[in-house]
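Inputs:
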Amino acid sequence: MALEIWVESAATGGLKIIDHIPPERPCRLEGKNGIGKSALVRLLVLVSGMQPYREQPSLWQSLRNLVGQTVISINGLSGDYSSATVRLTPELWPDEPSESIGDWLGALTLDGDEVPVQRLFELLDVVHLSGTERLADTLKQQSGRLASALSDVADRLYGLDNQRAELGELVDQLRTVSPRVADSERALWEQVAEERRQVKADLQTAQPVADDLSRARALTALVETGDAAEHQRRLQELRGELEVARSRLGAAEANHDAAIAALAKGTVAQREVAKRERRLGANAKTMGKLLARQEELGARLEDLEIPADVELLDAAQKAVLDKASESARGRQRRLQVLAARTRRTDAENRLLDDVRIILDDAAKAGLGSTVLARINNQEITVSEFRGGLGFLSEVDDNDLEELATVTRDLAELTELKELFERRATLENEDTQLRLEIQRLEPEAAGHDELRSKAAETRAVLDATGAEVRSFMAQIGALSRSVLGGTDIGDVEAHIRDLLAKHNVQASELPAALIDAQAKILDLQAQDGNLEAEVDRLSASASRRRVLRETLRRRSESDEGYRWLSQLATALTPDVGLKAGPTDWPDETWQRLADHVTAFRSALSKLVGDVGGLQAIASQSPSKPSPRANAIKNVIEADALAELSAEPIADALFDSGTVRRVNLDEESITWTTPSGETRTRPLAAFSSGEQALGFMRARLQQIADQPTTDRLVFLDEFGAFISADRRRPLAELLTSDELRALAEQVVVVLPLQSDYAMELDQTTGDLHEIYTQRARAVAEHGYFAEEFTG
Amino acid sequence: MSSAEQTLRLLRELERLEQESESGQTSSFATEVSPATLLDALVKSDFNLTVAILDVGNGA
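Outputs:
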């Protein structure tokens, strides 16, 4: 049964579309120009899933704007469905004539059932053979077909994007756990550790140099300005004054004690005053000791840019001290954990490392506050567990030199914090005691001389105590300065020694000091970076162990990862992998890593190649490249195969053998049966007899490719096929030779004559035929009937 | 000829041209699976990535 086409046109703006092709095979479709013959042919090509407007964007946009929701019905299909109806949805069509036809085309029903429009692409093949088409154009269309095929594959590959991303993560994990990376990291760890040892050794060498040069520079400045002699004289003077102040303080303490003792024998009120006076005296002694200690720790305060003689810490100074304590505590913690490692077995350390990796990963994933356990009614979170991990009470602070230093630092910082808190408490207590003494004064007035004596001696005590502290602070500050208590002559000799020790001329000292300090900074930065790298590499072994366990367990329990254990077995069949706690051998992990990495690389290249080939196939001409050459070679090979078909070789190439189709030169080379090699341009195969011969050959080729339902249009052949040759063409189209050609073959012709005018000159059957044609042309502008020649 | 078959032909031709231009060079392990082999496996598995990995793995 031949295919029948109906069109319910919704076109506007003057666009016309032939509305009917009857089920006559072969069919003659003849009509006036502009009546919509070509529009129908192109729409049918489009609904078969091919782009008929390739490289014709303006024609495509015109069709999209004018065609409306036209409905095309195809009846007489020979497969599972007998009819198909497509309602076009041009409002969804892309701006450009896309090679790949998608859902946007329209809504399809097959025997009334709504299905995706792509189903029709599988069922229907529409072939449009044009008499004006050059052989060169036919070959170029192949490039479009390849672009369309590549687009289809690209769409499928894009659908794998999420899986590709997951595969990328898995590749990273498999590479991490692979023995090859492990070996490489071990070697790197040794190299980095050695580099760090060298940097530390360099630091140990460079630090004394910088210290010496710094001291020499400071001493030189003092000597050059004459401050050195003044410094030394002032220090000696202060020491003498301190001795005098101390003896005055001793006397004041004795006088105060005696006055209190006398007061303590007075009235109840006087005894109460005596108690407080005694307390004030004790506080003064305590304060003196605290200040002496503060003086001893003055250098540490000055390191924090806090004045050594500060009375009370303000908020900013307190924050600085807290931050320094916190930093020292963190460093002490790390060093304690490091020292603890030396007291543990390898197994214990491995356990701790594994747990650490898991806890760190959990914290990174935002699970720091997750409660892990409850012990003695105390809930333990991830962060708390991590904070306490690795602690060992037996670790001695002297296990590591660095640990001993940082422990001392922390102790002094903590002592300073407590010292200032104590000072504040004493100040408050003193204020309170003085207020209480003032309140008791009226009641103690009976023995005013005793109370007055106590108050006077306390005032002297306070004053002498302050004097001693002042001298101590001044002496401390001068002693901490670069000069210390050295004699001026010794200072100059010391400067010379320092410079000679490091082979530095006095004139070069400023530059040498800058270099030495820059070197220290650089080495410290290097040390910091190397320490971080060593930490990272040290953690890698544990991370690898944990990751292997995670991947292996996931491959056993997670359906989405089961393929991993299957692949492991396939890659190392002789190993005998088993589910359970035993790790897979290194060989298995390495092969897995290699294979999945290779697969992913191939996938990336595949996506890149398909996308690149698609871009090149969609444009012409393209610049020479391996991809462009691949496309050209395939098209030439296809063309060679097609043109070598016997019917075409007979018709066009002297029954010879086609040797080469050259797209660049647009030529064909063949050898005649007599052995003569001939080359002709493609353009030569475009008219007259050869067009008919070529068309016959093409029809034969199409017929040789079986399909379910095919609709063939022979268009624009009128100029080449004279009226006396139409009957042989009709016979050919109905011949056994081309029986498999198509379910419908339509010969499209322009109006061949004015049938109404010729009615008077015809009789019999011809008159009847002309009458029908004239009526149809008058009503519709065309007629369609069985093609008989 | 299906879209996948046409693409496979192009990929194989491209592979041939690339091998010609790289003759004498040894390939790294990362390119042991060719895009054409991979596409073939993907097509056979209806573009199921894990099935294709196993397929290529079993053939490796």
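Remarks. Chain B touches chain A at residues 2-4, 6-7, 9-11, 13-14, 17-18, 21, 29-35, 37-39, 42, 47, 49-54, 56-58, 60 (CB under 8 Å). Residues 35 and 42 of chain B are 10 Å apart (CA to CA).
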